[in-house]
Fold each of these.
Amino acid sequence: MRVSARADYAIRAVAELAASESSMTTEMLAATQDLPRKFLEGILGVLRREGIVVSQRGLGGGFRLARPASEITLADVVRAVDGPLVFVRGERPSELHYDGAADDLLKVWVALRASVRGVLESVSLEDLAKGTLPAPVTALLADESAWESH
């Protein structure tokens, strides 16, 4: 599974908003997370249309979360900028069909989707901003092999 730059940048930007007590401009978000400003502008536009952030123009304007950080999961943000969490050849696993020796491959893709959902839907922006990841996520991190590339 790959996490797109859009999803990574979107999560980093909204994590900053979750940690902030006031609105933040695109420039502030880009500088804080070392993100390309123009690319971030497009991402914030998508997040605004998808109801993750709201924007305000004028003095003291900028972006803020559209609802409490505890109510927005990482899965919400990824879906807003990239669509469904797991695709296989551009299709959702539930739309696929395999025959013969690969028949159970569909079950593997669905299990992968469930696993990704399990992590991304369990972590809220508040969790991320406060550094308090849920126990099931931290349990996965306890396995040293999780940190190794294979």
Amino acid sequence: MADVRTYTLIYVVLLVLGTAKFVFFEIGISEQLAIGGTVVLAVIKSLLIAGYYQHLREEPRAISYMMIVAVFMVFLLTVAAGYSIQ
């Protein structure tokens, strides 16, 4: 289990990444580039949260693979729902 210093460092990184997502839209770059950067930062933040705060780094690999499959299925359902709306 990680110590308080590690959790504090992860929290600061999450805070900086969250601020960076706001800054992307304020610095004057194209909206598509800002959205792409926001998506990349969101993935990084999700991995940090799942890895440290939900303790997936310490779990057996089978549980991590199960989580990856679950996220992929949610992605497929989202794509299918978006396709059916059109």
